[in-house]
């Protein structure tokens, strides 16, 4: 056999196991970490290797036990005061050292602000590739990670492989993967590590944390019921119709990019490729045509209801229930009906 190919195969084979980085803020885990744990379990089972949680922070040991409930076999824990607040330099050093010492073949992180920052830095330092914002992950017949994500403005899906380097690294946005069932009382092994990161070596100091969450901000990504409006809403003032329906359902109002670009809704309500990815129980699309960039953000909703006066609108291809009609009649009628229940 080709000696170069053999050397590469040997280098790759030295890496084993699937890791999921457990993101936390002051000990509070990010839900996306458990979503990834579910996917990580699947990948680890396909490969026949252990699934490990990577827990870095201060007073975060509890998260190791929580990770077992979501499917991890073991957890690598670095628990030191220097990791109380996220700082790239400190976390980077800790995670890279773990990778050097334990050599996982796959490392997954949430595509959150923190995850995007850390994953990019880690991939650079350990000298491997990173596929950001994956929407699908699988294993091919050569045991490589197949990382699928939208490309060219969502018009095609690209499958990206990292077949010469390890670990294979990917980030996945919140709500793209389903949350696995939590099995209380599951057990696993906690592997405690010392980081050697010293406070005096970290240039960044956290002086104060100021929350940017203003009271009226609505969490579209986490909502169970979403009523979204598009260009068909014809104007900002008409969104009150959607708000009334959303209130009846105990949900929130979302929007397509056209509605956001028109200034009818703030950007944090935008659903889609350049907005939020949502996975509610019910998604009601009102006056939204169903462009691919919108669909990638909501097509995994449990039930999709589309209201559009154009029977040919692509939104009907993903809708479970479609109403062909004028939303200015249909939406108030639905709200009335719900009120009368
Ligand atoms: P239109 O496509 O104009 O659809 C309006 C619909 O309303 C039509 O189907 C019409 O039949 C219906 N309608 C009109 N009046 C009524 C009525 N009275 N009753 C019932 N139905 C009615 N888009 C997103 O949404 N999210 C994204 O994150 C996003 N990211 C993008 C990223 C890139 C790189 C690009 C290139 C585009 C992106 N887009 C995104 C834009 C996307 O391509 C579409 O342009 C957009 O989603 C269209 O919005 P819309 O469905 O509201 O408007």
From TrEMBL:
Q: What is this protein called?
A: Electron transfer flavoprotein subunit alpha
Q: Can you name the source organism? A: Geomonas oryzisoli
Q: Which UniProt keywords apply?
A: Electron transport, Iron, Iron-sulfur, Metal-binding, Transport
